[in-house]
Write a structure and sequence with these properties.
By secondary structure, the chain is an alpha/beta fold. It contains 26 helices and 22 strands. The chain is elongated, with a radius of gyration of 31 Å. Belongs to the XFP family.
C-alpha cells in the first residue's frame, strides 16, 4: 500500500476506515437505536442526554487510520497515546473496528447487535465514560485532565527498544504547564535502548470557547518553537474550505512515512555507534545531528461535521467542540441535519449487511498484538517482578551493647540509598528513579555508585554523573517526573519518585488522576495489575533547617487519604530500619499509590531490623521499652489487662523522637505514672476497618489506645487528619493531637517543633493537664513551671547562638 505516488487508490482503505470511525463517533454521541440507519432517523433513536466531544474526534481517527497503514506496511510496534482523551468516541470506534473491543467485551459483537450496544453504551447510565478511560482498549492516558499525554508517552518509550509511541496532542492541551515541559522528554530518551516518541500536534484552532495560541502564531514562529525544543517539525495542513480529504490523506501519509524513516535512522545510527567507547560530549554531539521528528497536523475542528447550525458556523469553530446539534429530539430540522451528516459517510460502503466492518478495511487492520488497541504495552506490558536484594546488610545495628540504650543514629534515606543502589543494579532494565533534581539532596546519592543520570544532551567537564544510559531521570518539574514514571509503570516496569514533601503538592491533581485511573482499572476484568506508584517524600516539614516556611507543608497526606481505600497507602517510618522494611514492602505491591515520608537527617535508630519487620507488618504497636508499663514488675505487666494512665502516640520520625523524650521526662519526674507509648507507621491503621482494608479492628484499637484514657498524639502532619481518620473510634473524644499548625520559618530543629507545640515539654505538659487530678498534685505546678521555662530557655539559646542547646542536641534515650 505504497503512498509514494500519492494516488487516491493507494489510500482508499485509509479513507474508508476514517469515514467508518467518524460515523461510529457521531453514532455514539447521538444514537441509541438503528445504528445502520436502515430507516429514516426517528426521535426515539436519539439519546435523551447528548454527551461527548465531537470536535477532536475526526483528527484522532485520521491519525489512527494512517498509523494502522504504517503498522501493516512496516511491522513497527506502535502505541497510540491520545492527549485529547475527551475524544473517547473516536478511540472506542477504532478499537471496535480493530476487532479488539469485541474480544474484550464479547457482548459488543462485530455485527448489528453489537453496533447497537456500542453506540448506546457511550455516556449512558450503566455504560462507559465519554473519555479514553481504562475501559477503552489501548488507552494509558484518559485525557480528562489535560496536560499529561506527552510525558506518559516518554515514560512508555523508556526501556522499550523498537517501540514507537505516537502521541496526539491537542492544541488546547499544549497550553498547559505540564505539557509545555514535556517537550523536553527527548533529552532523556536513549535511542540505543529506548523506543521513540512521535508527537503529533493537532492544531484545530480552538479550545472550548477560545482560539488556541499555537494555532494563531505565525508558522515560522511555530517551527522555531519546536526546533528550539530539539525536534524537526513536519507540517501538514488541510480539510479547510471543502478541500478533498484525499489531499490530506496523501500529505499526512507522506509525513508519517518521513517521520518513521527518521526514527529508524536515529535508531540505526545510535546502535551502529554501540562500539564507541566515549560516552560523553563527542558521542552525544554525534547522536544529536538528526533531530527527532514531530508532526504538526492542522485540520478544522469538527471536520466533516455540520458546516453551520441555525445560521451559526460550526465546522472549524469552537461550536464543534462538544455536541454540534443539541436539539435533535425536539427539532425536526436538527434531526434531518443529523441524518444527512451520518449518511454523508456512506455507511452502506463501510459495513456489511450484518453490520460487521466492510472487507475493504481488512487490509488496514494489523494482526494480533500489533493492533494499537490490543498492544501489550497498553495493558501492563510484561511485568517482571522486581529482584529485591536482601536489606539485612544495610540495616543499622540498634543497641549493639545489649544494655537497652538505643543510642545509635542514622539518616534514614541515606541508609535506604545504599539498598536502592543494589535494587538498581539487580534490575538494570526494569527499574528507574525519578526526581526533580533532589536525588542527592534527599541523601540517595549512593545510587550514583551504580548508575548515572540519563542525559542525551552535550556535557562539559564539570558535570557529574551524566550518561546516555543512566537509570536516574531528573528534571526540575514534578509534573514531568511523575508523568514519565506513570507511563513507565502503566507499561509494566517499576520505579520510584522522590521529592521534597512540601513540593509534592505540585502534582496533587496528577496524583488524583492516577488514583482514579487505578480505581477504574480495577473494575475492568481484562486490565492487568501494574506496579505501584510510590512517592518517597523527604526534606520534610520538621527538618527544613536551611530553608523555611515555603518548604514546610505536610498537607499532601490530607489529599491522599481522601482517595478510595483500595488504592492509597500512607507510611511514616520512624527510623532507618523501618524505612528499609517499608520500601521492601511497597516495591512488591501492585495497583497502589504508596506515600512514604522519611527524614534524611541523623535521627535515633529505634528498632532493630527484626523489630522493624514486626512493626511494619503490624503497622502500629506498643513500644514498651519507651513507656513505663513494665516498670512495676509482674503486677504492672503490659499484658496484665490494666490500662495505662495515658497513651503517648506518635507517627513520623520527629514526632516519635519528641514523644520518647517526653515519656522519659515523665518517667524521671513523675514516678509511678503508667505511660504507654504507641507508634504508628501505617497511617491507615487509624481508620475504621469498614473504611480501609488496613484499618485496625475496633477491639484491637481499643486495647491499644484504651476506651477512656487520654491519648496525646504527636503527629507528623496537620492534627485534623488524625481526627478525620479516627473519628469513629470509641475513645476519639480523648485523643488530643499535636502536629503542624502552620507555624514555620528558618530555624533550629527544636525551635521548629516548639513553634508548633510539638516539642517534648509541651507533650509532657499535656499529660499533666489531661490526666484528671494530676495537675493539682503536690509538686506538679512547680514541675510545669520548670518545663515552661525549659522551652523558653531553649528558644532564647537558639536565637542567641544559632543552634539548639546541648541538653537538646545531646539528649539520648535512657531506661
Amino acid at each position: 500500500m505504497s503512498t509514494e505516488d500519492g494516488s487516491s487508490d493507494s489510500l482508499e482503505a485509509v479513507d474508508a476506515w476514517w469515514r467508518a470511525a467518524n460515523y461510529l463517533s457521531v453514532g455514539q454521541i447521538y444514537l441509541m437505536g438503528d445504528p445502520l440507519l436502515r430507516e429514516s432517523l426517528q426521535p426515539d433513536s436519539i439519546k435523551p442526554r447528548l454527551l461527548g466531544h465531537w470536535g477532536t474526534s475526526p483528527a484522532l481517527s485520521l491519525v489512527y487510520a494512517h498509523l494502522n497503514r504504517l503498522i501493516v506496511e512496516k511491522g513497527v510496534p506502535t502505541v497510540y497515546v491520545c492527549g485529547p482523551g475527551h475524544g473517547g468516541p473516536a478511540m472506542v470506534a477504532n478499537a471496535w473496528l480493530d476487532g479488539t473491543y469485541s474480544e474484550l467485551f464479547p457482548d459488543v459483537t462485530l455485527d448489528e447487535a453489537g453496533l447497537r450496544r456500542l453506540v448506546r453504551q457511550f455516556s449512558f447510565p450503566g455504560g462507559i465514560p465519554s473519555h479514553a478511560a481504562p475501559e477503552t482498549p489501548g488507552s494509558i492516558n484518559e485525557g480528562g485532565e489535560l496536560g499529561y499525554s506527552l510525558m506518559h508517552a516518554y515514560g512508555a518509550a523508556l526501556d522499550n527498544p523498537g517501540l514507537v509511541v505516537a502521541c496526539v496532542i491537542g492544541d488546547g492541551e499544549a497550553e498547559t504547564g505540564p505539557l509545555a515541559t514535556s517537550w523536553w522528554g527527548n533529552a532523556f530518551l536513549d535511542p540505543r535502548s529506548d523506543g521513540a516518541v512521535l508527537p503529533i500536534l493537532n492544531l484545530n484552532g480552538y479550545k472550548i470557547a477560545n482560539p488556541t495560541i499555537l494555532s494563531r502564531i505565525p508558522e515560522t514562529q511555530l517551527v522555531e518553537f519546536f526546533r528550539g525544543h530539539g525536534y524537526e517539525p513536519i507540517l501538514v495542513s488541510g480539510g479547510f474550505d471543502g478541500e478533498d480529504p484525499m489531499l490530506v490523506h496523501r500529505s499526512f501519509a507522506r509525513a508519517l512515512d518521513d517521520a518513521y524513516d527518521r526514527i529508524c535512522r536515529i535508531w540505526t545510527s545510535a546502535r551502529d555507534a554501540e562500539t564507541l567507547d566515549d560516552r560523553t560530549a563527542d558521542r552525544t554531539a554525534d547522536r544529536t545531528v538528526e533531530r527527532p521528528p514531530m508532526i504538526v497536523l492542522r485540520t478544522p475542528k469538527g471536520w466533516t461535521g455540520p458546516a453551520e447550525v441555525d445560521g451559526a458556523p460550526v465546522e472549524g469553530t469552537f461550536h464543534a467542540h462538544q455536541v454540534p446539534l443539541s436539539g435533535v429530539r425536539d427539532n425536526p430540522d436538527h434531526l434531518a441535519q443529523l441524518e444527512r451528516w451520518l449518511r454523508s459517510y456512506r455507511p452502506e460502503e463501510l459495513f456489511e449487511s450484518d453490520g460487521s466492518p466492510s472487507a475493504v478495511l481488512d487490509a488496514l487492520r494489523p494482526v494480533g498484538g500489533l493492533r494499537m488497541s490490543a498492544s501489550l504495552h497498553t495493558n501492563g506490558g510484561t511485568v517482571e517482578p522486581l529482584v529485591l536484594p536482601d536489606i539485612a546488610p544495610h540495616a543499622v545495628a540498634v543497641d549493639p551493647d545489649g544494655d537497652g540504650a538505643r543510642t545509635e543514629t542514622a539518616g534514614a534515606t541515606g541508609v535506604f540509598g545504599g539498598w536502592l543502589r543494589d535494587v538498581v543494579a539487580a534490575n538494570p532494565t526494569t527499574f528507574r528513579l525519578f526526581g526533580p533534581d533532589e536525588v542527592a539532596s534527599n541523601r540517595l546519592q549512593a545510587v550514583f555508585e551504580e548508575t548515572d543520570r540519563a542525559w542525551q544532551l552535550p556535557t562539559v567537564a564539570t558535570d557529574e554523573h551524566l550518561a546516555t544510559d543512566g537509570r536516574v531521570i531528573e528534571a526540575l518539574s514534578e509534573h514531568l517526573m511523575q508523568g514519565m514514571l506513570e507511563g513507565y509503570l502503566l507499561t509494566g516496569r517499576h520505579g520510584l519518585i522522590t521529592t521534597y514533601e512540601a513540593f509534592v503538592h505540585i502534582v496533587d491533581s496528577m496524583f488524583n488522576q492516577h488514583a482514579k485511573w487505578l480505581e477504574s482499572a480495577a473494575g475492568v476484568p481484562w486490565r492487568k495489575p501494574v506496579p505501584s506508584l510510590t512517592y518517597l517524600l523527604s526534606s520534610h516539614v520538621w527538618r527544613q533547617d536551611h530553608n523555611g516556611f515555603s518548604h514546610q507543608d505536610p498537607g499532601f497526606l490530607n489529599v491522599v487519604v481522601n482517595k478510595q481505600a483500595d488504592v492509597v497507602r500512607v507510611y511514616l517510618p520512624t527510623d532507618a530500619n523501618t524505612l528499609l522494611v517499608t520500601m521492601e514492602h511497597v516495591f512488591r505491591t501492585e495497583d497502589r499509590i504508596n506515600v512514604v515520608v522519611a527524614g534524611k537527617q541523623e535521627q535515633p535508630a529505634w528498632l532493630s531490623l527484626e523489630e522493624a519487620r514486626a512493626h511494619v507488618d503490624a503497622g502500629l504497636g506498643r513500644w514498651d521499652w519507651a513507656g513505663t508499663e513494665l516498670d512495676g514488675g509482674d503486677a504492672a505487666d503490659s499484658d496484665s489487662g490494666v490500662d495505662p494512665d495515658v497513651v503517648l502516640a506518635c507517627a513520623g520520625d520527629v514526632p516519635t523522637l519528641e514523644t520518647i523524650a517526653a515519656a522519659q521526662l515523665l518517667r524521671q519526674r513523675v514516678p509511678g505514672l503508667r505511660i504507654r507509648v504507641v507508634n504508628v507507621s501505617d497511617l491507615m491503621k487509624l481508620q475504621d476497618p469498614d473504611q480501609h482494608p488496613h484499618g485496625l479492628p475496633d477491639e484491637e484499637f481499643d486495647a491499644l489506645f484504651t476506651r477512656d484514657r487520654p491519648v496525646i498524639f504527636a503527629f507528623h502532619g496537620y492534627p485534623t487528619l488524625v481526627h478525620q481518620l479516627a473519628y469513629r473510634r470509641t475513645n476519639h473524644g480523648n485523643i488530643h493531637v499535636r502536629g503542624f499548625v502552620e507555624k514555620g520559618t528558618t530555624t533550629t530543629p527544636f525551635d521548629m517543633v516548639h513553634l508548633n507545640d510539638l516539642d517534648r515539654y509541651r507533650l509532657a505538659l499535656d499529660v499533666l493537664h489531661r490526666i484528671p487530678g494530676l495537675e493539682g498534685k503536690p509538686g506538679m505546678r512547680r514541675l510545669a513551671d520548670e518545663w515552661h521555662l525549659a522551652r523558653t530557655e531553649a528558644r532564647a539559646y537558639a536565637y542567641e547562638h544559632g543552634e539548639d542547646p546541648s541538653w537538646i542536641t545531646d539528649w539520648r534515650f535512657e531506661r
